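Q: Given only this backbone (529 positions), what sequence would you predict?
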């Protein structure tokens, strides 16, 4: 007996009674189970396939490229890099950050091949850390990753919303800029993103491929008018002029502090890892997709950065723009047209909104995975996968609620909101340090690593060491304020937020977490063990 979908009469959409039974039991139909290697990996990790594997190489490359939005973030966070570092600091800093993160993501890609699980870093810490600290370190890493990705949603949605406000300011100088307007825009963008993560979840891979095209083409839609119309800065000045408007003791220190722009633009390519259980042939496809995403966005980001540094004009003038975003002023100064500026800026609004869609997918999978191992309060609620939909619907909706609640903070204080979203950088950097540190220690001790189809080979130890050598100073400088003249508004409150999260997670672990959290390593059963 078969059940026919009348809206889709072709033979490809005939659903058998067996498929209906799979849906009722919350399991995945055989065609979405992935390859033999995927099933072998899931068995080795002690997991059951409950999400559809409908991502392929191109769609997951698009997922990584459009979530991180490297060239878009460089544009939106331009003021921090110009204040501390200047054009030379931005360019040389970006090159250094790309090289450092290449080592980081190569390490992440290899671990993803060893254990392609939505848990990502907290699973790797659990499996690779010394036995004595496995459970606690894994638990803290899980909290850091979960909080980091939840804050990332509001970060990117807030950027998109305030850019819209910036355009209104440009076109209507009499506009009364209100913070609650930005909050309402964040809520609207986040709610729109939920549509693609629920009703259109099956089509998300296609959407990611489409957005990748917009992401790449959008670069040229912006740089071509700038190269054609804008006056050129002197090459010697662009590559050698450092800025220290933050009042630091040297231009070198200022440049390191100003790296927040370039770090943010290259942070988060582990996003694809949290979709591991939805990727076909994940242990081989995922590592290649991660490194491809990094390469594509690094090139696009460098092209945009060079273009900006040669065409931005007088730095003090664009930093003092009423729009709140120097890049909008650069567009207007270059074109002299409101219509052209609106069109160029709209490209960013579209891609940043698309990034919010991808952020929701990543954050909800991280939340779901951690809850699956009883790492959170009300874990059974967060870990629920809706039968027939095969998505963690509760975690998706909770991600929306968290984003709305965090965005409301902006109404009372933008400083408070900035303090919360700063957790994105510090949380993810420390999760990288913990997971890569564990595999580095395992290598250093000469202990065997799990079988992996994408390997760093004999360079593994050196790559892991280089990644850690890069991450530690970046983590330290992420707590610095932009200026030495610190006030309540200019203070970088991320240290307080970070200590608060780690402290709260540690207390919860001692009180309840250690009794309920299931460290992933106890579920792992690999060949030969």
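A: Predicted residues:
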């Amino acid at each position: 007996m078969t059940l026919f979908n009348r809206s889709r009469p072709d033979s490809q959409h005939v659903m058998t009674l067996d498929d209906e039974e799979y849906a009722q039991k919350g399991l995945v139909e055989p065609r979405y189970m992935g390859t033999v290697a995927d099933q072998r990996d899931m068995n080795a990790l002690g997991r059951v396939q409950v999400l559809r594997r409908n991502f392929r190489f191109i769609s997951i490359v698009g997922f990584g490229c459009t979530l991180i939005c490297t060239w878009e973030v460089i544009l939106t966070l331009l003021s921090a890099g110009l204040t501390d570092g200047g054009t030379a600091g931005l360019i040389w800093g970006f090159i250094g950050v790309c090289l450092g993160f290449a080592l980081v993501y190569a390490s992440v890609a290899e671990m993803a091949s060893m254990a392609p699980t939505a848990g990502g870093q907290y699973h790797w810490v659990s499996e690779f850390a010394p036995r004595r600290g496995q459970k606690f370190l894994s638990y803290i890493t899980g909290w850091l990753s979960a909080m980091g990705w939840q804050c990332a949603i509001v970060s990117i949605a807030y950027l998109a919303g305030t850019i819209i406000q910036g355009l209104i300011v440009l076109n209507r100088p009499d506009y009364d800029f209100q913070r609650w307007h930005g909050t309402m825009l964040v809520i609207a963008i986040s709610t729109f993103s939920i549509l693609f993560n629920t009703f259109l979840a099956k089509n998300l891979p296609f959407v990611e491929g489409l957005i990748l095209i917009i992401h790449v083409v959008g670069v040229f839609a912006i740089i071509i008018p700038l190269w054609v119309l804008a006056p050129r800065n002197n090459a010697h000045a662009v590559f050698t002029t450092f800025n220290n408007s933050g009042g630091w003791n040297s231009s070198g220190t200022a440049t390191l502090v100003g790296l927040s722009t370039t770090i943010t633009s290259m942070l988060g390519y582990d996003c694809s890892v949290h979709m591991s259980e939805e990727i076909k042939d994940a242990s081989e496809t995922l590592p290649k997709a991660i490194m491809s995403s990094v390469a594509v966005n690094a090139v696009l980001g460098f092209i945009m950065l060079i273009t900006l540094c040669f065409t931005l004009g007088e730095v003090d003038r664009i930093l003092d723009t009423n729009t709140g975003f120097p890049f909008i002023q650069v567009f207007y100064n270059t074109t002299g047209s409101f219509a052209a500026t609106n069109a160029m800026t709209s490209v960013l609004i579209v891609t940043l909104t698309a990034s919010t869609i991808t952020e929701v997918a990543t954050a909800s999978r991280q939340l779901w995975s951690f809850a699956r191992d009883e790492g959170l309060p009300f874990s059974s609620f967060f870990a629920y996968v809706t039968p027939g939909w095969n998505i963690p619907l509760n975690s998706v909706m909770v991600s929306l609620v968290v984003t709305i609640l965090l965005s409301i903070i902006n109404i009372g204080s933008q400083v408070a909101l900035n303090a919360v979203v700063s957790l994105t950088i510090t949380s993810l950097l420390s999760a990288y340090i913990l997971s890569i540190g564990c595999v580095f220690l395992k290598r250093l001790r000469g202990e065997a690593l799990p079988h992996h189809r994408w390997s760093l080979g004999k360079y593994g130890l050196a790559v892991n060491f280089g990644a850690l050598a890069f991450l530690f100073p970046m983590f330290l400088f992420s707590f610095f304020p932009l200026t030495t003249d610190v006030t309540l508004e200019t203070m970088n409150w991320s240290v307080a937020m970070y200590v608060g999260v780690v402290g709260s997670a540690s207390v919860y672990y001692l009180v309840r977490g250690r009794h309920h959290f299931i460290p992933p390593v106890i579920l792992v059963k690999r060949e030969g063990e």
